[in-house]
Amino acid sequence: MIETTRIKDQQYFPTYHLSKEATEVALKEYDLAASTLASEGKVLNMSTSVLLGFIGVAAAFYKDNAVRVEGALKNGIESTHTLAAFVIVFVLLTLASTSYFADTRRSVVLSSRKIIILRRMLGLSYGHIELVLPNKRIEGANEPYHLRMFHGWISPKAVPVYCLSITSGVLVWLFFPKFQLGEKYFVFGYNFFPIALSFLWGIFVALYYRLHLLDQYESIFRIVSVFTARILRQKIELNFEYIIYRSRLSVMEAKRLGVPVEIFRTILVALEDRAFYKHHGVSLRAIFAAAYRYLKRGKRSGGSTITQQIARTLFLKMSGGSVRRKIVEIFLAVWFDRCFSKNDIIDLYICSVRYERRVNGVIEAFKFFFPHEQLSNVNVSQAFFLIERVSNINSGLIVDKLILNIKYLFDNKIINRQDVFNIIDIFKYQIEAKRIKSSQNNLDKIKNDVFNHMFFYGFETKKTTYEILRGEIIKLYKSFFKIIRNI
Predict the structure, then answer these.
(1) How far, CA to CA in Å, does 16 sit from each of 6, 256, 413?
(2) By CB neighbour count within 10 A (0-12 exposed, 13-18 middle, 19+ buried), where does 193 fall?
(3) Which of 279, 338, 267, 337 has the alpha carbon at shortest distance from 303?
(4) CB atoms < 10 A from the CB of 175, how many?
(5) Which of 126, 155, 197, 260 has the fewest beta carbons under 10 Å from its own?
(6) Where on the phi/psi map is residue 124: left (φ > 0), alpha (ψ -120 to 50), or beta?
(7) Count of alpha carbons within 13 angstroms of residue 337, beta-carbon side
(8) Which residues cross the membrane (predicted)?
(9) Whole-prediction pTM
(10) For the residues 234-244, what does the mean pLDDT come to?
(11) CA-to-CA distance for 49 and 46, rounded, in angstroms?
């Protein structure tokens, strides 16, 4: 058990075996992070206390001197220049205070994550004792991303932003009635516009604070995606940063082992998403085409881009073809497309998706289907076979689809004649090894159909037999007249 834990830690932390000098440096870093966390935590708590105290004193002063304060505000706000200066100072102070509390909170979280990383690098782990030490607290967390950057709106740690938003909203409400508005702004004889404006300002301050606490791969679109999933009652993984970290780690491991991911990229785009480099995560054309096929034939197929497939694999807990799941999948795909480049998305796809039941990622898939070969020697035929196995759950063989895929790649010169022969041999070997459930008749059908297609298309070109003969006759005709002219 201990040895298994050490191997797992080595995967997450490559510098797990530290030298004596490196251990001393790590310990100093740990002490520095701990002291920084303690000091910033104290500053944040003290600032919150000062803010609450100031609000209490201001409220008490206004209660006892309401008439005097309103008179001073009325006299001071009559000047346009004074009003403009006051608005600018008020906005700047409010946003600066909000930024201060958000940045302090971010610094606390980053220091806490650093402590967890250093703790694991030094070989200390609390194991699975979350009932005693919850993993969402630094005392018991084993993964740094268990500590969220944003603590939640109902957390006691959100007290500073609530104080700022409510106080600034009240100030807006106090100042705004000094403006003279027309009758169209009154409802039932009362001016509700100042209340609405103060409420909107308070919401703006709270959102400003939230945007300052966006995590590494977090954006407004991801927040909307999570909200949409909750509305539609779709279960998704919320620890986005950790899941992406694991996926990127698998990509690094594949490249370290010498997997030629470029071969997989070309074949994957050609078979799964030919407009991949043109769209922004979602293909409306593919969605409408899939909807049309479903309405006309009652058959669910296609419509998902590569980005949608990787988003579904990584973040959606529920499988199936429901419309609600598809909506959440689209939101996540648009967000995911903005986080990574196109090649990075393909690499994450190759190294994360399911190739067979309980076989995820290209490394596991290659070892499963080709146990006696080296990963660094992957060829085009093997890459095609693995891509064809993506998302396979019953180890079956869709003959018609496989034939169309081979023909398309051959016609577009992505694979050549020898590659096709190798592909047929691979499928024969996998069927004999019982990794694929199919019959020899299906394999013969694939072989005959593909070989006939290659013959009538002149093997390496798209030309028909007629076009080939016509071209050869024209060449002979030109050669004959050239000889005649020379004579």
Answers:
(1) 8, 18, 46
(2) middle
(3) 279
(4) 19
(5) 155
(6) beta
(7) 19
(8) 43-62, 82-102, 158-176, 188-209
(9) 0.76
(10) 88
(11) 5
Q: For a pLDDT cut of 70, what percent of the chain falls above it?
A: 72
Sequence-distant (6+) residues with CB within 8 A of 407 are 450, 453
pLDDT higher at 2 or 212: 212
What local confidence, expressed as pLDDT, does residue 210 receive? 92
**Token reading at 380:** 């085009």
Largest CA distance in the chain: 121
Give residue 198's identity as a one-letter amino acid code: S
Q: Which amino acid is at 260?
A: P
C-alpha closest to that of 370 among 447, 425, 441, 438? 425
For residue range 410-421, what is the model confidence (pLDDT) as tens digits?
A: 888 898 888 988
Of the candidates 306, 303, 313, which has an alpha carbon nearest to the alpha carbon of residue 273?
Answer: 306
349-361 residue pLDDT tens? 999 888 887 888 8
How many C-beta atoms surround the C-beta of residue 222 within 10 A? Answer: 21
Is residue 164 within 8 A of residue 101, CB to CB? The reply is yes
Q: Are strands 354-356 and 190-191 parallel, antiparallel or unpaired?
A: unpaired
Instruction: Answer whether 348's CB lies under 8 Å from 248's CB.
Output: yes
